[in-house]
Amino acid sequence: MRILFVTATRIGDAVLSTGLIDHLLRTYPQARFTIACGPVAEGIFARMPRRDATIVLSKRRFAGHWLSLWGEVARRRWDLVVDLRGSALSWLVLTRRRAVMHGGRRAGHKLQQLAAVLGLDPAPRPAAWWGPQDEARAAALLPGEGRFIALGPSANWAGKVWPPERFSELFRQLTAPGGRLEGARPVVLAGPGATEAAMAAPVLAALPGAIDLVGRLELPEAAAVMARCALFLGNDSGLMHLSAAAGTPTLGLFGPTPATEYAPMGPRARAVLARGTPGQAAMEALPVEDALAAAIALLDQPAT
């Protein structure tokens, strides 16, 4: 059985789509997969089981990336095409079955919206895949038996970024004597590039003992690193979703984006919202005490 799965360009949306892939992997144990995704999301699928190929969709003028994709897949006959981009491609290839996500805003969490494409209820949780080589790298980067707290201070736009001094203050309150994660070490993660590095720099400066992994990890390595952490604290970002998928207790910090649609989803994951109108409040309206209370409640929450 051959399945073509067309998914997102952004890391967070690609992570959320892995729940559908995990469902298909379990439902069709003989199936082989071809994944089509954007360049930054490619690593999400690098360790995916039964993946024959990943086709990277690099945006081109006049929608040329879709023509290129069609050229790579049109010569095969597929058993199932899942198209989360709602493109014309799924109607221009030979397949026994199509599942196409159509455009437009919908109510509910993104995970539920994706699940509706395959008629699934409840929605399957996202998955994260990493291998022995990623485990080994994570163990080398986070040595010893102590606990670690992963901090994700970056995001894809400045409006989603919590003030960096609050990250360091929240970390201090969690790890101080008598704190919920007393003695834990900070691990700072962000993607590659100068913008991400600039967002992370003030947090690194405020926590001189932090393990600096900014721009140093491939996505499977990042998943393995976060899986070794006692807690992830971060802005609404792809790393936040990957952490939740990896099973790490994950607290997403939300202000001007809707947690009703993009809260982290995992066995132990929750969002804490800035005070004010949900989905419209500034990140500055999220005080440290609210995030601290949410983090402690999350750590006390049993895995589901």
TrEMBL record:
CDD domains: GT9_LPS_heptosyltransferase. One of its GO terms (molecular function) is ADP-heptose-lipopolysaccharide heptosyltransferase activity. Keywords: Glycosyltransferase, Transferase. Pfam families: Glyco_transf_9. The keyword Glycosyltransferase applies. GO terms for cellular component: cytosol. GO terms for biological process: lipopolysaccharide core region biosynthetic process. It comes from the Bacteria. Transmembrane segments: none annotated. The keyword Chaperone does not apply. This is Heptosyltransferase. It comes from Teichococcus deserti.
